[in-house]
Amino acid sequence: MTLEKAIQILDNLAEGIHPESLLPLPTQDACNTRSAIRALQIAIEHLKAHQQPINSLSINSNIEENQWNNNGSFLSDNPSEEMSELDIHSFFTDENMFEYLQEFKDSEFNPTVARLGKCLVGTQAKSVYKYVKNFSFYGILGGLTTYNNIKPIISDFFEKYNNRIEEEYTHSNKPWEEIDFFEQETFNTLNFSTVEQLQYSISNFPLQRDFSNITSESLIIARKVFPRAYEPWVQEENDLLLKTLRYSNDLDVLSKIFQRGQGAIRSQGQKLLYQIAQVAQVSKASH
After folding, report:
1. 30 lies in a domain?
2. Which long-range contacts (CB under 8 A, 24 or more apart) does 92-97 make?
3. Which H/E stretch holds residue 67?
4. Residues 114 and 166 in one domain
5. Beta bridge partners of 188
6. Burial of 36 (0-12, 13-18, 19+ CB in 10 A)
């Protein structure tokens, strides 16, 4: 196994993602505990330190002037420019946290650990940014810490107030909408040939809805852009989508493959991943 591969696996575990299936780990998984997350972060930091080239004068110069954080970006060695652990925790008092959640509630965007944490550090993820970019606390920790550093604090808060958060700050009775798979860092390991093969397979599924008599302009346009728009999902499509999610969460790529809008892909993907998580929990409980 290469050093890069080892770092990638540890990164996935620290993010709460299974390194092979790339599905979210169950909440109660040991890798989602605060101590495990911190241990993984320390391991990643040490591995990345050994990963840096030692023969490059420009990089050696940067290392002398800066230190690497666990995401591979630079944090200044000047203590006045960094935030102490005490300073960081001041942003996470219960009072502040519930104020953050209130903005999620007001925007009708359900809060999760990942959404809140990435909002605080200033996420640019397409599936999150459009909802949180105007929040008063968006990016207040940007450049001062990382999502991996604050995730354990937020996780503890969500675990402590789980019932209250679900009752007061969650709008939907659709639990699969809390699946954050598409809000994780975008990845895609599908090559061009595989994408073409998948597109060909999808295009061969017969259309079940007759749109010949549809007069709605919006539906007609949607069908022209996405040939399978508003089609019911058949089992074969669901199976292909689940397999494809092992290799990509890039909604641009998935939309081209499955010939549907990104919203439809995200919603169906969340439902399928939620069903798998539920089955896994039942299986684990029975043992």
Report:
1. no
2. 92/150, 92/153, 92/154, 92/157, 94/157, 94/161, 97/154, 97/157
3. strand 66-68
4. yes
5. 248
6. middle
Q: What is the pTM of this model?
A: 0.45
Residue closest to 12 by CA, chosen among 27, 24, 30: 24
Task: Give the chain's largest Cα–Cα span.
Answer: 69
pLDDT one-digit tens code per residue, 71-125: 333 333 443 344 555 577 889 999 999 999 999 998 888 898 989 999 999 988 8
Q: How far apart are the first and last CA of the chain?
A: 32
Last residue of a domain, one of 180, 207, 230: 180
225 and 174 within one domain = no
Domain count, the chain: 2
Are 175 and 110 in contact by the 8 Å Cβ rule? The answer is no
Looking at 180, 206, 239, which one is the last position of a domain? 180
DSSP state of 26: P
Q: Are residues 89 and 148 in the same domain?
A: yes
Give the single-character DSSP code of 169: S
Strand partners, 24: 17
Boundaries of domain holding 270: 192-286
Regarding whether 223 and 282 lie in a shared domain, the answer is: yes
Nearest to 240 by CA among 184, 199, 187, 185: 199
At position 190, the amino acid (one-letter code) is L
Quick check: 52 and 68 in contact, CB under 8 A? yes
Instruction: Clarify whether residues 206 and 120 are in a common domain.
Output: no
DSSP 264-280: HHHHHHHHHHHHHHHHH
Task: Let me know whether 209 and 157 are in one domain.
Answer: no
Mind listing the pLDDT tens digit for each residue in 230-252? Answer: 888 999 999 999 999 999 999 99
* Residues 134 and 217 placed together within one structural domain of the fold: no
Provide CB contacts within 8 A for 138, sequence distance 6+.
119, 120, 122, 132
